[in-house]
Amino acid sequence: xxxxxxxxxxxxxxxxxxxxxxxxxxxxxxxxxxxxxxxxxxxxxxxxxxxxxxxxxxxxxxxxxxxxxxxxxxxxxxxxxxxxxxxxxxxxxxxxxxxxxxxxxxxxxxxxxxxxxxxxxxxxxxxxxxxxxxxxxxxxxxxxxxxxxxxxxxxxxxxxxxxxxxxxxxxxxxxxxxxxxxxxxxxx
Length: 188
Fold this sequence. Notes:
The chain is mainly alpha-helical. It has one domain. Helix content is 88%, strand content 0%. The protein is built from 5 helices and no strands. Helix 1 runs antiparallel to helix 2 (71-122), helix 2 runs antiparallel to helix 3 (124-146) and helix 2 (71-122) packs across helix 5.
């Protein structure tokens, strides 16, 4: 007859601790990957802005040399280029907001989809924690999607001032979500 022993509280605690360690390690790796990709994206955006700035400066220099007496014309052109650069920056920011919202939604769905497995392996209580976290993440994604960039900027500033520790935690979760989004989802 097979040896069937009931796991002790220490065994369950060790399993939970091992699972938490695995999740932390995975989140850390994904956060580093996301950080690298985010940094690269920021560098590319800066390079694009520099290129636009260089082009605007070239154009304005050409016009100034051609028509020294009509400075108002090239000032207007420079303003147009600046407006275009601003629009491009705003479009990139909106795209980033959309990606972040999609990543949070995806993370929430992933956690929600994993909850039944957590129920089986760790217990219903931990599965309920996962479902609650998934709901919160999905609600956050919906709120993020519904706000404009100005509102988000003010909300972030106020939140960081009030809760810097929580802000660091949220940044880690966002890094994980971005890493999941950029890595193409699950590794099935």
